[in-house]
Amino acid sequence: MISAAYRQLQKQNGSALLVVLVMVVIVGLSAGIAGRSWQSIVQRANEAELFWRGDQYRRAIQSYYEYGGGDQRKFVGQYPARLEDLLKDPRSLATRKHIRQLYPDPLTDGEWVLIKDKGGRVVGVQSGSEQKPFQQDGFLPEYESFAGASTYAAWKFQYYPKTNPSAAKVVPERAVPESGENR
């Protein structure tokens, strides 16, 4: 029985080896395609996470800027000196958090690149990644500048007020009727 099987294998003249080689090539190509697809899926997920985390920082910086330190409104319009100030606002005696936690850059798994004003205070964050973003348009109005960006590093999550916050917070004690009528 064994010798009959051995003779049968000798008659194939390497065709079994050829079939095995073709199968190895097919499996290799399939793995390569699956690997590229998986890499794209992971990058898209990281891009979404980058956008969410960056927006959290932008909102936290806005909250810090507009808060001003409790009853003392003298600090309104001040940016944080460092990201840790967003976790515990040093301007207030009470614990005031502007962000839940400090998130790492999801694309580099490291620290964010800080965007600072002339005084050295943090106005925003950006990724250090040089990868090309998948999303190229369809951004919210505050992120329109992200459209057509060549790298994630061009996505700057920063807060600049539209108006002077101290002027916007002024509330008159009593409204005066425009027509001079007394009610």
Explained architecture:
The chain contains 3 helices and 3 strands. The protein has 183 residues and is mainly alpha-helical. It has one domain. The protein is elongated, with a radius of gyration of 30 Å.
Bin the helical content.
Answer: 25-40%
**Average pLDDT taken over every residue:** 79
Record field, number of beta strands: 3
Order of helices and strands: HHEEEH
Strand content: 5-15%
Shape: elongated
Strand order of the largest sheet: 1-2-3
Uncertain segments are 165-183
How many independent structural domains?
Answer: 1
Oligomer: single chain
Task: Please give a quick description of this structure.
The protein has 183 residues and is mainly α. It has helices spanning 2-11, 15-67, 165-168; strands spanning 113-116, 122-126, 156-158. A 3-stranded antiparallel beta sheet has the order 1-2-3.
Annotate the secondary structure layout.
Layout: H1 2-11, H2 15-67, E1 113-116, E2 122-126, E3 156-158, H3 165-168
Antiparallel strand pairs: 1-2, 2-3
